[in-house]
Amino acid sequence: MHKTQSCLLEIEALSNETSSEKRRDVLHRVTDLFFMTTEQQTPDDITTFGNVMERIAYELEVEARAELSERISEIDKAPRRLVCRLATDDIAVARPVLERSNVLTDDDLIQIAKTRGQTHLHAISKRPALTSPVTDVIVERGESPVLQEVTQNKGAEFSSTGLGVLAEKARTDGKLLTALGSRGDLPPDLMQEIKQRVAQKIKSEMAEKYSESDMADLDSLVDESAANLDLDSFKKSNDELKELAHQERLTEDDIVRLAKAKRLTETVHALSVLTGLDDRMISHCLLKAEIAALGIICKANGFKSPTYLTLIQTRIGNDGIEARDVARAMREYDTLSIGNAKRTLRFLKVRANVKLDKSQESGQTGENLWQAHNTQQIPQ
Fold this sequence. Notes:
- It is built from 23 helices and no strands.
- Helix content is about 70%, strand content about 0%.
- By secondary structure, the chain is mainly alpha-helical.
- It folds into 3 domains: about 1-100; about 105-185; about 210-375, no CATH class.
- α19 (about 290-300) packs parallel to α21 (about 325-335).
- The longest helix is centred in the middle third of the chain and has 20 residues, at about 190-205.
- The protein starts with a helix and ends in a 6-residue tail after the last helix.
- The chain has helices spanning about 1-15, 20-35, 45-55, 60-70, 80-85, 90-100, 105-115, 120-125, 130-140, 145-150, 160-170, 175-180, 190-205, 210-225, 230-245, 250-260, 265-275, 280-285, 290-300, 305-310, 325-335, 340-350, 365-375.
């Protein structure tokens, strides 16, 4: 390394240049030399490199230091003092080393987490692996975006105390609640509590949109969904549904995928988006109405027979559906014409747009749909 030391001395002499552009070039040369000689460096060599890079970098603007931080963030033998100083710098400089550098120890991370702001905490939360002493501090000091990030991090470990704090904060944070429920390392009792909270949150949101009689139909759907809920998949699926609906790319296959996965609330929403019917009508037809009413909705939208069968099989309730009823429904579905189904559905949509007295709104939309078809109360 004698030749390297000599080069460093020459470069350090060049660093006395007053031009910012030339000094930045010098920093590049030092960094390049450090990378090329990493395997041959002794601890003293690393310290020397660190001292030179640090002195030049901190006489330059933030952008130069951010570039340096990015370059050395994945070097395990990077100069420790330099990395620690970069980690407490402006977040544009600190982020690369906070997210990736293995030079930083748990003690370093804990100290930074205790003394720096939310942006630094957020960067630490993205590290591939985090021990519970570090996450304890993040959970204690972090605000909602930080808590969501660290909770979603599969490489983050949490103490029982940390999980308890997260669960308490999730009481008033729906996104954190979903993120927490997606973890596979929750104790069974805490997971059950989280799922119950999710169900209650969904019911509260629905109660703002639906009447008390409507909610009687929806409660069982929500409880069944929450009991079998994979919260991580639930969140991802909801995001995907919104995006597909926005792009008008939601398909029959998406409906089948959701129904088979027992994601019933999502199935209802997806059917609503795809058919143009509101969630209330869809959920009633899926849960309590004559199953043939669901068949009219499916046939009017051109769904294949296996899709209708899949939706029938999601039916919940103590009694379930008899095999003979399923067979009869499938025979009727095969003989039902798309034209008749569309006319029936069109008739119901017109009725749904008419303002009815509260006493007339009994929630029997599914039965009305089937009765309308049977009694031919529609234009042929």
